[in-house]
Amino acid sequence: MAKILVVTSGKGGVGKTTTSAALGTGLALRGHKTVLVDFDVGLRNLDLIMGCERRVVYDFVNVINGDATLNQALIKDKRLENLYILAASQTRDKDALTQEGVEKVIAELAEDFDYVICDSPAGIEKGAHLAMYLADEAIVVTNPEVSSVRDSDRMLGLLSSKSKRAEEGREPIVEHLLLTRYSPERVETGEMLSVEDVEEILSIKMIGVIPESQAVLKASNQGIPVILDEESDAGQAYSDAVERLLGKDIPHRFLEVQKKGFLKRMFGG
Amino acid sequence: MEQTDLLEQEPEQQAPAFQLKGSMLTLTTLELLSNDLAALDSQLAEKAAQAPDFFRDAPLILALDKRQPGDLPDLAELLTLCRNHGLRPLAIRSEQEEELAAAAAIDLPVLPLSLARDRNLPAQPQPAAPKEPELLPARIINSPVRSGQQIYAKNADLIVTASVSAGAELLADGHIHVYGAMRGRALAGINGNTQARIFCQQLGAELVSIAGQYKIAEDLRRIPAWGNAAQIYLDGEQMHIIAL
Ligand SMILES: Nc1ncnc2c1ncn2[C@@H]1O[C@H](COP(=O)(O)OP(=O)(O)OP(=O)(O)O)[C@@H](O)[C@H]1O
Ligand SMILES: [Mg+2]
């Protein structure tokens, strides 16, 4: 049985899709059979970031409607053996995803895969609810600013009360916090919240702090998940997050302002 | 389920012939102070002349415990004397052996002193003591209360052992305790209970309110207890916020 993971945030544009692609790829790299499911009906970003947009024939809604089988719709990643993508529909009909249909498809995926990663649309409305409803664990993606943190807080409230687990009175969804677009310089100048601030406000465990990085935009333009850019700080930070997701306890990196030159360090510049 | 049970039982049940109810009656007590029945007779006649309405068929308790020491007057004679003046003695109040025996002999009920205090006389059967207010268990929340969530403890206290986010709301008819950062809204005593209080480990609330009186963050920020453990309560119209 797969572990069902939702990547969610409340606020839009904080890095959910970037994170879904990175974590899914990282899990597949470590030998876990993983499928990425794009719940963002109408926008369809995940296939772009994964670089498989030209191979999308059938999508999530086609499978729900019975126009295609799962096998027909699943796109196999061209780089990794055990990584698959189920694309979102381009339809503008926001009601194309039904609760019943989603449950059926996710259950079918859960039989075959180790990890099902659900990339949630922004907001706290129906689409976001469908994406998190069946989750076992949640990655709550937050940027270090007040409005993003507030929305994540709201989403955490929904995760603890509106999920299937909550409704059935089972063990609650395991919640992880992923802070991204973190810029230690801007924390120092007081423009952004610090890791400690965010942890204190949300009081859940931090699974990763991803620095603000040029590498992210570059990778997404090339259709390569940033975690495969092993030289980059963001790629390494995502790799650490995958390790923590798998249970390793490793320290966070990239939290400090980049060291200045040798002389300045010597003489405390 | 209850519905069918009731229906099935109905044919077996007879219409009740009586029911018992506790009640409090206010009765006049005649405390006999002397043993001189002649004196009593003339003084009662005097009083009855002043207030004939009061004395007409007035039920009363005949208290013997304040009587001066000496021989007990004949009880039957005493009762007749009272009735002659329009009084209707129901029972005697006494704890003394001899008096109890005399009352039993003429089948007159007795109220022990403890039950027959002052002007509030319980009738028989003894009324049930006013019911103690029932203690409703506090509502206890052990996980963070998030923005957009609202928790209400009806007729009870509310205890949160985790943090309360900005945008979250706590409501209680009783007290509110927060053993974590309190950044949301806390409204205690919302049914009008001015005795309700708010206790929190780290006061950073957007709003606190007791029985409808409130303060918002702008006011709270200026208070020394802001950011620290605090207790909030009402003293009349005045809301007090003090360090814990
Ligand atoms: N660590 C980062 N450093 C710099 N830019 C980033 C980082 N993470 C994400 N971005 C950029 O932020 C933008 C939004 O990212 P992404 O699409 O992953 O967000 P999203 O939460 O999925 O958005 P939506 O709510 O629209 O689905 C993209 O342009 C992406 O390149
Ligand atoms: Mg997205």
From TrEMBL, chain A:
Binding locations of ATP: K11, G12, G13, V14, G15, K16, T17, T18
Residues that span the membrane, as ranges: none
One of the Pfam families matching this protein, by short name: CbiA
Gene Ontology BP annotations: division septum assembly; negative regulation of cell division
InterPro entries: CobQ/CobB/MinD/ParA_Nub-bd_dom, MinD, MinD_FleN, P-loop_NTPase, ParA/MinD_ATPase
One example GO MF annotation: ATP binding
CDD domains in the cross-refs: MinD
Record-level GO cellular component terms: cytoplasmic side of plasma membrane; cytosol
Subunit structure: Interacts with MinC and FtsZ.
Family recorded in the similarity comment: Belongs to the ParA family. MinD subfamily.
Function: ATPase required for the correct placement of the division site. Cell division inhibitors MinC and MinD act in concert to form an inhibitor capable of blocking formation of the polar Z ring septums. Rapidly oscillates between the poles of the cell to destabilize FtsZ filaments that have formed before they mature into polar Z rings.
PANTHER family on file: SEPTUM SITE-DETERMINING PROTEIN MIND HOMOLOG, CHLOROPLASTIC, SEPTUM SITE-DETERMINING PROTEIN MIND HOMOLOG, CHLOROPLASTIC-RELATED
Protein name: Septum site-determining protein MinD
Organism: Thiopseudomonas denitrificans
From TrEMBL, chain B:
Subunit: Interacts with MinD and FtsZ.
Keyword Cell division found: yes
GO biological process terms on file: cell morphogenesis; division septum assembly; regulation of cell division; regulation of cell septum assembly
Keywords from the UniProt entry: Cell cycle, Cell division, Septation
Job description of the protein: Cell division inhibitor that blocks the formation of polar Z ring septums. Rapidly oscillates between the poles of the cell to destabilize FtsZ filaments that have formed before they mature into polar Z rings. Prevents FtsZ polymerization.
Family of the protein in this entry: Belongs to the MinC family.
Every Septum formation inhibitor MinC C-terminal domain range: 140-241
Domain of life per record: Bacteria
Organism of derivation: Thiopseudomonas denitrificans
Protein name (Swiss-Prot/TrEMBL): Probable septum site-determining protein MinC
Gene: minC
InterPro entries on file: CAP/MinC_C, MinC, MinC_C_sf, MinC_N, Septum_form_inhib_MinC_C
Keyword Cell division included in the entry's annotation: yes
Residue ranges annotated for the Septum formation inhibitor MinC N-terminal domain, each copy included: 18-89
